[in-house]
């Protein structure tokens, strides 16, 4: 069935720190083992789902992130209720890319091709103005490379109004599934049912200028060059 | 800055149940108010991020879902550790579609166009075989319409091996941001900086047949017709 479960088995990673909660448990082939895989998954996107505990229940919030390879940065407001209640609370930050549907001969063997990363830790509120500026630059450039040097940077007042959180990448795990369905060598292969993968792709579309934009302001190359290109 | 925070203000919805945790708090314009919006967001995708509590910390797991408009179904294994530890635990299931980057004149006003839904509740493990079959059909047809009648359906043994969870849509909230950046009428409009939206689109790609597929088995229309079409 369609499922991609991080609660799956792999050997402890050589390069990613493995804890009880990042040790995969069931499908050996799907657990990631390298820091390079983690970096590639984080580089390929900009949206994460952040899990925080609020009043004893989990809350899952979509938000953008940026990373420098050691730390992942995100906005504090998304976790504000949790952080106010419990500033030392662990969060789980998950990044997922769906690459396609795995269409098997049997419904039971259906699945999803995907790449995902889960990062656990206690985020740190960035207070130092210089570090905050560097973190916001990292986040902005991760989402839209070239934009930090093009758009107006945060003023001192805006910087003070921005809550930025930093989370270490030390406790992380990755999961990847690729390739065709797994029932091509079983009895279901005789059923005459088509099997394979229906890929799903994310692509940047044509730029839509703000209707309020003054005449004669062209889009900069770092944005125009992205059009029709794949995400990641 | 790039952020889409569910912790934002709107009036209590007329049609979605509003609780302390689904009441948005800050940006009035972004809170959804109708069941139709929720249904549209859930219909437009098939991947959710499920937040469960494990050993006192949140765990955020990507998984597929299906919905009949009243209940959302997902696989039990993704929540297995949590459900074993605490079968009555509340989960948070979040579905997010990113529609584009909102590129403003100032970094501070950057954002994301998106649609998201958050559903809270205590999932119920579906035990009755008939209800389980109906739920799996709902999930399968939600992800890949036409596949339930095409692929081999679950055997009794497979059905028993499949854990299916049902979550009511009663406690839900939606959030949507659309349109251009908001700084077109402020002092930054004089900066001569291009502003607008860089859309992001998800599209189904060309079918990739399983290399193990026997000759002469063509893909069925319900799959072939999806190629090059947008998700949702």
Automatic annotation (TrEMBL), chains A, B:
SUPFAM superfamilies: FMN-binding split barrel (SSF50475). Its EC number is 1.-.-.-. InterPro entries: Pyridox_Oxase-rel, Split_barrel_FMN-bd. GO terms for molecular function: oxidoreductase activity. Keywords: Oxidoreductase. PANTHER family: 5-NITROIMIDAZOLE ANTIBIOTICS RESISTANCE PROTEIN, NIMA-FAMILY-RELATED PROTEIN-RELATED, FLAVIN-NUCLEOTIDE-BINDING PROTEIN. This is Pyridoxamine 5'-phosphate oxidase family protein.
């Amino acid at each position: 069935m369609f499922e991609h479960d991080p609660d799956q088995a792999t050997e402890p990673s050589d390069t990613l720190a493995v804890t009880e909660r990042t040790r995969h448990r069931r499908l050996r082939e799907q657990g990631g083992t390298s820091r390079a895989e983690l970096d590639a998954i984080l580089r390929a996107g900009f949206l994460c789902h952040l899990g925080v505990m609020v009043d004893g229940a989990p809350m899952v919030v979509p938000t953008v992130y940026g990373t420098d390879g050691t730390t992942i940065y995100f906005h504090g407001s998304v976790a504000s209720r949790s952080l106010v209640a419990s500033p030392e609370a662990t969060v789980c930050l998950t990044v997922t890319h769906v690459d396609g549907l795995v269409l098997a001969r049997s419904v039971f063997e259906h699945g999803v091709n995907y790449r995902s990363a889960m990062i656990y830790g206690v985020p740190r509120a960035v207070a130092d103005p210089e570090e905050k500026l560097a973190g916001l630059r990292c986040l902005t450039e991760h989402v839209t490379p070239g934009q930090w040097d093009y758009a107006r940077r945060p003023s001192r007042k805006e910087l003070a109004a921005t809550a930025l959180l930093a989370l270490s990448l030390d406790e992380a795990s990755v999961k990847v599934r690729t390739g065709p369905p797994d029932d091509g060598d079983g009895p279901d292969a005789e059923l005459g049912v088509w099997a394979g993968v229906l890929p799903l792709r994310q692509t940047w579309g044509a730029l839509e200028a703000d209707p309020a934009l003054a005449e004669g302001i062209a889009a900069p190359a770092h944005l125009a060059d992205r059009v029709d290109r794949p995400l990641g």
